[in-house]
Please model this.
Amino acid sequence: MNAARMKHTTSDAASWLVADIGATSSRCATLTPPADTPENIRHYRNDNYAGLTDLLADYLGARDEKPRSLGLAVAAPVYGDDIRMINRDWSFSGTSLSSDLNFAHVTIINDFHAIAYALPALDDDARCEVGSATEYRGGNMAAIGPGSGLGTSAWIGGDAGGAAMTGEGGHVTVSGRNQHEDEIIARVRDRFGHCSAERILSGPGLITLHHAMHGIEIESPEAITGNPGDDACAATLNQFFSFLGSAAADLALITGAFGGLYIAGGIVPACIEQLRQSPFRERFDDKNRYQDYMRRIPTYVITDPLPGLTGLVAMINRGS
Model:
């Protein structure tokens, strides 16, 4: 911790520091339950900090009152107290954060675990439907999100009595639906040894997919998503959405997500019109004998700019 940046503060035992820690950027805010809206929201570029402790210390240093509880949603597997981020060279633990930053209580969950808690709270102001379903009902909801990696999660049960389900579904093996896709996957497999969903359905995966399809090295996902007039980029994005449709459908089948399949992450919310014009929903429905089943499931893009914080707030207020 950079103690020199910490100013004198008073302790606020009732409030929380809540933070959504991504691979590239992080969002921090304060919350005083039972309020359901976080305050004092600040955004950070992770490259500006040596580690999470320095980032949180910077946020705390700007506050007159110091929360005594910390809630984190982290883009990393959470199996115990020691957290190692996959797409960023950061490691930390709840114990070290508590000691270094003087928190009385620390809760750490996976970022898509937080998304699962957010799902029941998302209304039409925080989501955008893509395609149309033949039925709209309550029940289980699932989320998938291409960003720096590929997250998955689900909300199982009704709004009041449900439970958040999390896992590492982004690392399931991808299969093709035709010879063209089989050839793409084979090229990715030759390069990496395993073609997981995350290998092609993420920011880095979009670059990998472009190379597998066209043999062209490209610097960033934005060079593809922001260049719809280029035939190669348009073909890559269409294929990306086709693979996403199949992966989303698999998740919806596994979780029985009649309440809706939600797309989160940093890529798709910026490309909603391209998604609508793509084969995404057609591929989502294309489950042969289960086509009618799939058509009953609505598909949404999450437009809430801070769904990780929304989920952390919901989790804290539920006392989970």
